[in-house]
Protein: MetA-pathway of phenol degradation
Organism: Nitrosomonas communis
Amino acid sequence: MNKAANCSSNTKLLAVSNLCLMGLIFLLSIVRPVHAQNSAATNPDIQLLLQKIKERDEVIEDLNRRVKLLESQQGTSKLQQQSPSTAVAPARQAQSPESTNHTQSPASPPAAEKPVQQTQADTKPQSQEKEKQSAGEFEVDALAAERALDRSLIQAGALLLPFRQMELQPFVNYFRRDDSFPLLVTNDLGQLIGVRTADVKRNEFDTGFIFRAGLPFESQLELRLPARVVNQTTNIPEGVTNVNDITRTGAALGDISVGIAKTLFRESDWIPDLIGRFTWDSASGKLTSNDVPMGTGFDDFRASLVALKRQDPLAFTTSFDYQTTLRKNGIDPGDQYILSLGASLAASPYTSLTMGLQQIWRQKTKTSNTDVPGSDDVISIATFGITSMVTRKLFLTVTGGIGLTNVSPDYFVNISLPYRIAR
């Protein structure tokens, strides 16, 4: 009986000891993490390591954001395959404290340098691929293209200079005209015996300077100082005079003009830019020089409206002008109505192309209050040109035109070098 009691007491003692042991293990499992957390919080080396890991994660996040931005801009598939994998792998390693304790120490360099170097290595082959592009391919500089387009629009009068900006534009124009007019042939008694046709061939050269200055309130001052040289050959039919060909050359100062332009409306939705302009063309030139008609010497007043609609890299322009001329020496030139249509294209980063059509309706000229027959006509010219950047401030513009009617110039060529002066 005593033996059974001893066995029972031993069993109870063993159960109590097992229960105490389990309680001790449970307490140790709670106290150990708390102690490890407290020791990590008090250990400066571990704090520095955690700070470095945090900084590395921030750098990785920033690199991922930049890579995604580059992918959206360039549309490359290479970065989409490589960049996320190279950036996610270090991030996963940083999440396990045990691996960082074995592989890093406070004295080691920040781990963020590795993703930076790897990203640079990924982007380096792309830059090399761009350098290997063929000579006919280039990366378009939108600002440069817009600059070339704006220069051509300024010369066309469809855009004004900013305030305190100035531009000096030397120019040379050449016009070729080949006209004919009837001559009445009479005998010694003054009797009409027939009609002959005389041919007049003119080579006209205009040269000078155009000055533009940007004024406040979106306005612009314009000044033109020209000189004119005309070489004229008149072919007279036989029997009219003793001389068949008469060649003369005249030279004189051209008509100095002064104008003011103002932006009336800014482009919005379907409404285009609208510029108003008023120009006075003075009578500083001569009517004739060496018996050669110079086509100058009258006071002209011109009012115009210019509309501009941009669809970069394209720009469309339309202008309508009305010009009236004051009488001089009994000659009263007729009024003129001018319609111009044009389009400009930024063809490359530093070059723009233009093309257009100009139509001029001239009213009859009067001499001593008498209409001159055949003086009312229509002049139509098709134009095309190119504007290209020479330096940052200097541009070259070459414009040509072909006459489409009998009274129009056969063709013309204009060369100018607008130079921007910034204040």
Q: What stands out?
A: The first helix runs from residue 2 to 42. Residues 76-140 have pLDDT under 50 and may be disordered. Residues 318 and 341 are 5 Å apart (CA to CA).
